[in-house]
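Notes for week 9. Today we move from apo structures to complexes. The key idea is that a small molecule is not decoration. When we ask for a structure prediction with S-adenosylmethionine present, the ligand SMILES becomes part of the input, just like the chain. The input block below holds both the sequence and the ligand string. Read it once before you look at the output, and try to guess where the molecule might sit.
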Amino acid sequence: MEATNLLYRDPELYDVVQSDSTSAGMCQALIESYRPDARTLVDFGCGTGRDLEILAKHFECIGVDLQPGMVDYAHRTRPGLDIRAGDMRTVRLRRRMDVVTCMGNSLAYVHDNEEISQVFATFAAHARPGALLALCSPVAPLTGPEPVAATVDTSTGPATVTIRHEWDLRTQINTMYRHWVLPSGDEAQDEIRRRVLFPRELERYAESAGFEVLDMTDGTGEGLTGSTAYTVARYSRG
Ligand SMILES: C[S@@+](CC[C@H](N)C(=O)[O-])C[C@H]1O[C@@H](n2cnc3c(N)ncnc32)[C@H](O)[C@@H]1O
């Protein structure tokens, strides 16, 4: 499968771009609040394993990702982690864990309703009774003045990226278009298509798979104010 996201073709740059992410810390705080006795964790769509590296200090972890390039990079740079190639729509590890995570918008890369149901069935198949599910996903389209330009410090110098979004209400796909000027002077374009699941919709997918939603938060303490949310749910079957 050819990666349209430039960062999937350059996982090192992916890690640089994500280096200020707080999602592992947020995930840990949610586990501490809702499942403080958790010992085992599986992360679907774990990418380069940047969150797992932090979480593995506290839990026995397995990560799963679809992109061979991300998995190979994770094996090379984080050899102590248990990261496996797999598709979260279908993978079965034959283990049930205390915590199931899907961070960094990974769920949004699955666009089709039926396939989203399959992903939630995967979450359920890996959850012990009472397990915690922690998801970070887009719950509203990104809006705001655009295009936005930013500089990213890479190991070979600064890259600049200019970003704009398009929103298709019928499919609920938010497409991000990026134009990169790399330190070499080369230019590249990429686009990322993310499916937005609005909060009630997300709740429905979770409940249909046997999860009771406990909280949806963007971490500000003010409810949902941004376009991305952490959803916390408990597996109530089993
Ligand atoms: C934006 S990255 C987030 C990675 C990681 N969770 C993080 O926060 O750094 C999205 C990841 O989801 C993975 N992904 C997309 N669809 C997937 C699927 N069906 N099964 C497993 N992984 C998938 C991609 O390969 C990519 O690594």
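Residues 113-125 form the longest helix (13 residues).
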